[in-house]
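Hey, can you fold this one?
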Amino acid sequence: MKYSNNDFHAILARRRSNIKGVMLSRILKSGKPGKPQFYEFFGCEHSVEDVIRRMERNNPGQTYIEVKEA
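Sure. Predicted structure:
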């Protein structure tokens, strides 16, 4: 089956439209939360705690907290 460019872009947009993840902030040296960033769930992660555990394991000495959406 051959797709047009419009069809192809629509398929890609649909794939990326339901990305699951969480907003986290890194705790700075001053003790204040840093800029919130979106982190996608990776592999078999299904919760905020799983993502925080991965980020802290990959970045020793850093602490992350969940950012509540306003």
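Residues 19-66 form one domain. Let me know if you want another pass with a different chain boundary.
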